[in-house]
Amino acid sequence: MAAVVASDLVTPLKRPFPNDGLGDENNNNNNGGATPDEKQAPRAVARRRDADPAAALAAARHEFGEHGGVNMSIEASATFTMAALEGTEAAYCTASGMSAISAVLMQLVGAGGHVVASRCLYGGTHALLSRFLPRVSGVTATFVDADDEAAVRAAVRPGVTRVVYVETVSNPTLAVADVPMLARVAHEAGAKLVVDNTFTPVVVSPARLGADVVVHSVSKFVSGGADIIAGAICGPASLVNAMMDLQDGALMLLGPTMNAKVAFELSERLPHLPLRMQEHSRRALAFATRMQGLGLRVAYPGLPDHPHHARLGAMGNPGYGFGGMLCVDMGTEDRANRLMHHLQNTTQFGLMAVSLGYYETLMSCSGSSTSSEMPPEDRARAGISPGLVRMSVGYNGTLEQRWAQFERALALMQPPQHHPKAAADRDADTAGNNHRKH
Ligand SMILES: Cc1ncc(COP(=O)(O)O)c(C=O)c1O
């Protein structure tokens, strides 16, 4: 990540070219390169310079960059900031989450190698492992229920399996990986555990739990603005250095490096990431609890009946909750779409969009969007039902205002006898109390 050195913006002009024709270079009166005319009335000259913004800008210091570049330095300090985020020795910022993931996998696995991966992964990662890497490099992947230790052990082939790959909290089903168990299994077979921590930055630190490499789609919570595409690889210095090798490194040779200006922008957002995650988590828990109270089928790791509630509680960093993602299963894609339609267009609860980690609540029907790369049978096996609505819970507006908007939208899904006022706007589905548990 980068940061413009603050002093560059405030310290006075040091002219880089002493003999640039601007004045008497032997002049010691602290006038910089004042002309003879300027020497006679230095204060007036200063006023004149200040009056014209163009002149003031041109008079501001122009200093060479640290390594002699014509522009001032953008300090490559993100390496430290991002590594600090995950508690790893080093980190490298990339142009997208997918570039981070593909670079790590290509570096660690190599031609003909094998990956054991969770059955439930972001659609792009699933496609990378199931289609692209097999086609271009002969890498093969076995997809397993990552919660089933025996299945993971059976799939891992010592000496051939190079990577065990999971998401801390899976997209979109919100299953929580047992990182310490997976690290043990991977290490016993001589493989590395790579964990995608996109859904739970700050909330969980997988490297502290045994993961060898942590990858991020920085485009999501870390950015927080839904306006930047970025990624990160956090891991040991030996890996990051190897990946930067001039002859042999995936980062050097595939060119996924983050734009320095993007890095600078992100460096401004990292300081409030922990605060943002706390509020995402607080709102998501409140909504999940209330939605469940209405009888909706909700998946949220913060709910006591979530199968991995205790696991995330034990793995998580205290004080950051259970993350900002929740899922509501509406049964069918049609009902999911109608609920989202009302939430966006009738009550302004949130926006239909496939991203996450934004201050507005974002909603998508995963089966037909972010997981659409997966064949239907793989989606079914991963537990992605056609009516699953994934929500990234935002934090703007008040909690009660947002909850009232959610309830109003839900009421529009009801049959008329329950909500007569909503009849004009209700959907055509008369199958009964469809938002109830089913
Ligand atoms: C869990 C996860 N990992 C990786 C990615 C890919 O990230 P990017 O869009 O920054 O390439 C996504 C994108 O949605 C994601 O949800």
Automatic annotation (TrEMBL):
GO terms for cellular component: cytoplasm. It comes from the Eukaryota. Pfam families: Cys_Met_Meta_PP. Its cofactor is pyridoxal 5'-phosphate. One of its GO terms (biological process) is transsulfuration. InterPro entries: Cys/Met-Metab_PyrdxlP-dep_enz (IPR000277), PyrdxlP-dep_Trfase (IPR015424), PyrdxlP-dep_Trfase_major (IPR015421), PyrdxlP-dep_Trfase_small (IPR015422). Residues 36-52 have a biased composition (Basic and acidic residues). The modification N6-(pyridoxal phosphate)lysine is found at K220. Residues 12-52, 416-438 are annotated as: Disordered. The keyword Lipoprotein does not apply. Residues 19-33 have a biased composition (Low complexity). GO terms for molecular function: carbon-sulfur lyase activity; pyridoxal phosphate binding. Keywords: Pyridoxal phosphate. Belongs to the trans-sulfuration enzymes family. PANTHER family: CYSTATHIONINE GAMMA-LYASE, TRANS-SULFURATION ENZYME FAMILY MEMBER. This is Methionine gamma-lyase. It comes from Eleusine coracana subsp. coracana. The lineage of its organism: Eukaryota, Viridiplantae, Streptophyta, Embryophyta, Tracheophyta. The gene is gb07216.
